[in-house]
Design goal:
40% helix, disordered N terminus, Adhesion/Biosynth-related, 2 domains, FAS1 domain, alpha+beta, 7 strands, 7 helices, Fasciclin
């Protein structure tokens, strides 16, 4: 009886170690196979059923084509497609038209990508804040490290005393506040 149990233990041990070695070989070969496939960021995930993220909402808006072009030029599509949560102050096309002539074209040049990123990140608050919870004089720290100031008068919410919030649109990873002006960060000293 003892001999049978030793034989069984030996056979069991052989099966386990052989199975583990094969599993290790399989796991080791999977990263190499995955590395050879091109990988996209969060924006490359195909999902036609879930609520749209802030980027997909903007892409679907005819009033935000300039913003989408700027986000793409700055390379921020994947960042803003991630889980968030984000509150995005999204200027409409007419808001970009208010910039001095040539400003947008200049910002869209590859050599000015860092400046464009800074401006776009100034439009993003990490977290979700609805207009119902905004207070007059409230200061919000933006993704670029600078602050914006909220003002509320007679139910009208403005950003930095200039940009009016026209509408608020929920997204799967946050909230979009449609604004009528481009927010420009304070000049660095």
């Amino acid at each position: 009886m003892k001999r049978k149990s030793w034989v069984f233990c030996g056979l069991f041990f052989t099966l386990i170690t052989t199975g583990c070695n094969n599993a290790t070989e399989q796991v080791a070969s999977e990263p190499a196979a995955a590395a050879s496939k091109p990988m996209g960021g969060q924006s490359s995930v195909k999902d036609d059923e879930s609520q749209k993220d802030v980027v997909k909402v903007a892409i679907g808006s005819p009033d935000h084509t300039t913003l989408v072009k700027a986000v793409q030029a700055a390379g921020l599509v994947d960042v803003l497609s991630n889980a968030g949560p984000f509150t995005v102050f999204a200027p409409v096309n007419a808001g970009f038209d208010k910039l001095p002539a040539g400003t947008l074209d200049n910002l869209l040049k590859p050599e000015n990508k860092a400046d464009l990123e800074n401006i776009l990140q100034y439009h993003v608050y990490v977290g979700v804040i609805k207009t119902d919870y905004m207070n007059d004089g409230q200061v919000l720290g933006q993704a670029n490290g600078d602050n914006i100031t909220i003002s509320v008068k007679d139910g009208k919410v403005m950003v930095n005393g200039k940009a009016s919030i026209l509408a608020s649109i929920p997204a799967s990873n946050g909230l979009i506040h449609v604004v009528d002006e481009v927010l420009l960060p304070p000049a660095k000293k």
